[in-house]
Structure formats: structure tokens, C-alpha cells
Amino acid sequence: MKIATWNINGVKARLHGLIAWLKAAGPDIVCLQEIKSVDEGFPREPLEALGYNVATHGQKGFNGVAILSRLPFDETISRLPGDEEDGQARYLEAVISLPGAHAGRAGGGALRIASLYLPNGNPVDSDKFAYKLAWMARLEAHVRALLRLEEVLVLAGDYNVIPAPEDVHDPAAWADDALFRPESRAAFRRLVHLGLTDALRATDDSPGLYTFWDYQGGAWRRNNGIRIDHMLLSPQAADRLEAAGIDKQTRGWEKPSDHVPVWMTIDTA
To answer: Which CA distances in Å does 146 have to 138, 190, 234, 244?
Structure first.
């Protein structure tokens, strides 16, 4: 099974590229972020025509997450627990039954997957940075509870965190940015240290693996990128991991997102 995540940066503006990538890459499940669409305005029909079930948690003009799945959803859960007053659409969780899984295997044949769009947090001297860190604390608490279920769990999305210096072209240039601040990186480490595996780094420890290139300053041409889109796996999911990679070529397409897809394959037998 192939699972991917992509911050599409406006699903309506990038629909042609999304469809082209879906046809070429053939993922079974896709987590999308920054769909920038209300639920009723999401372009479901062309994606359903490709064989995908569609779940969305959107809002007008910004944020918004979605999950596309060739398999039906057993359950979907919108919103990250922990703050009932938080109206930003940044988290969508789904449970999907895995075909061909042995009944006695960890997780009982169920995959729990979340599409998440973590707050940017800039500028760091504003409430936005405090919101980012509070959101990460809520995510940590929720993941701690999910791990007790001992399921195949995949947390995929735009984390807006650069985990380490090898994940950024020019670390000094990002030193004061919320994505690379020590507080953000420490919160990310606390999340991983719950027992999660970074799918890409588990398969490739090379430097220069980036998932985002800014539209400004010739970042794409100069390969001045950062890695902020991640797929974190529970032990039960990590045991099934076969391969992972980045579809970097989409950044060079016409009218691209500034992010590119990250994907992995897992064994469901």
C-alpha cells in the first residue's frame, strides 16, 4: 500500500497537477493540507472519478485538510482534541480497514491515519508562536493516547518544523524562524520520542532531502529548500514500512505548490 502526504496550497488552483500526480504515482491514500476550501466547495467529483473516497475538514480561504482513500473510511474524526475554542481546520483523522492483514497482527488490520497542518508560528514574538507550541502540546497528548491503542498509526502532513540542520539548505538563515526555533524542534522531538518513526529518515539519511522551496528568491532554482513535511509512524506501522521517498519533480511543474509529495509504502499482508 502506498500512502502519501502533500501540502497542495490550494486544491482548486492545483487540481490539474494533483490529478496528474495521482494518475502517475498511484497512491492508495493521500493526506492533503492547505486545501483552502470549505467542505462543500471541495472538488470531489474528479477525485472520486479516479476511485478515491474523499473526507475533508475545511474552512474558507485558508488552512483545511483532506484525506483521499481508495479504501472506504470506517470512521473520520475532525479537529484536534484539547481546545474546543480552536476553530482552525488543521486536523483530520480516519480509520481504514487494511485488506489482507492477518487477524492476529498488531492493529487487527486497521490503519489509523491523520492529515495534519501544524501552525507556522511566525513571527515568534507574537501569539502565533504560542499557538503553535500549544497546538503541538495538544498533538503530543492526543498521540500519547492513540499509541495506547497499539494500532497501525500514520501521522502525515505539514508539520512546519525543520527537525535538524541536515533538513535545511542554510541553517543560519532559518535560525530565528518559528520552523527552526529550539522550542519547535524540542516539541517535535518530544513527539517522536513517544515511540514514533520518521518514515523518510528510516529509509534515507542523506542530506539535502527537502519538501518545500519558497516561491521567492529563486529557492527552487538554487535548491534552497527545507524538510517540513513528515510521516511519523507508530511501532506497528514502522514494522510494515518498506520504502519512502519524495516526489521532488512536482515543484518544477506549471503553477506548482511550494511543497512536494512525500510517500511511503507499507506491507499489508
So the answer is: 12, 15, 9, 23
pLDDT, tens digit (0-9, with 9 covering 90-100), for 25-44: 999 999 999 999 999 999 99
What cell does 26 get? 498511484
267 is catalytic: no
Query: What CATH number has the domain bearing residue 170?
Result: 3.60.10.10
Residue 92 · residue 64 · CB < 8 Å: no
Q: Is 127 an active-site residue?
A: no
Please state, in angstroms and rounded to a whole number, the distance separating the CA atoms of residues 180 and 110. Answer: 34
Q: Are the C-beta atoms of residues 14 and 42 closer than 8 Å to each other?
A: no
pLDDT per residue as tens digits for the range 121-180: 999 999 999 999 999 999 999 999 999 999 999 999 999 999 999 999 999 999 999 999
Q: Cα(189)–Cα(164) distance, rounded to whole angstroms?
A: 10
Among candidates 137, 116, 123, 131, which has minimal Cα distance to 231?
A: 116
Q: Of 91, 117, 159, 210, which one is the catalytic site residue?
A: 117
Catalytic member of 28, 52, 91, 158:
158
Strand order, beta sheet including 91-97 = 75-78, 91-97, 110-117, 152-158, 229-233, 197-198
The CA distance from 15 to 36, in Å, is: 12
Starting at the earlier edge strand, list the strands of the sheet with 29-33: 53-57, 65-69, 29-33, 2-7, 262-266, 241-246
Q: How far is CA 189 from the centre of its chain?
A: 16
Number of structural domains (the chain) is 1
User: Counting Cβ atoms within 10 Å, is residue 11 exposed (0-12), middle (13-18) or buried (19+)?
Assistant: buried
- DSSP per residue over 13-59, as a string? TTHHHHHHHHHHH--SEEEEE---S-GGGS-HHHHHTTT-EEEEE--
Its domain, for residue 139, covers 2-266
Cis peptide before 123 (omega within 30 of 0): yes
